[in-house]
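Q: Sequence in, structure out?
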Amino acid sequence: LLDYWVFGATSRAQAYTRGDCIPRTYNIDHPVTAASSDAAALTGNQNNVAYTTETMFDGQLAVAAEVNHFKTHKGVFNFVVPVLASGEGATAYKVVLSFLDIQADIDRLFWERLFKDFPALQKPFTEAKKAEFLKFFQSTMEVVDDEAAVTAIGGPFVLQQWQEAFITPAMQWRIAEKFADAVEIHATSVNRYERRAMREALERVMKISHNVISQQPWAHEQITNPITSDINSFRAWHEAGNW
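A: Exactly. Output:
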């Protein structure tokens, strides 16, 4: 138990790690190596990584060889995307749109509170950057029911913010959580079920967008696996049905 709670997954474990039995350390922390004929031919040991003179000095090819060799965490490397009930996507978009119509609330409830908790974000968040994020939230929430459409909008956005603006995926989650908090405080005229739908829809948007990272040739499952980087907390773990 100590191994799991202290050294393994967080209390907000994903759906595939929960059940009647606590996940063991052997399928959480320790890599399971996959033997291959290529490795045997190249290195004389089928349990080695199939490095060659070409893959050894190429970052993307080396990672690809390692991905084929190390299968940690049962090979799972994507977030489990929540499914919205019928009509929840449209409801969530309506709630978000009502918030985005009032600039004073955006400044007071979102940006001020975000910068108070994360002062380092004040420098990269120019007016143009603020507009980018607000447009991202609005455009993805508009098509939240369409996973392919969210991927097309959110995937490039997540990668661009990470690679060009150096806003990491974990920080992007924090920003989205602050946005959800601000919308919820603003939306006093809607009932709690509509506010909950907004949170679930925004959680869905962020998970779909961040799942694009695992599709990159340089991304290893050890950095994209939700067990090792369970950075979402849109809902309490018990409310989400996790541990």
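The chain has eleven helices and no strands.
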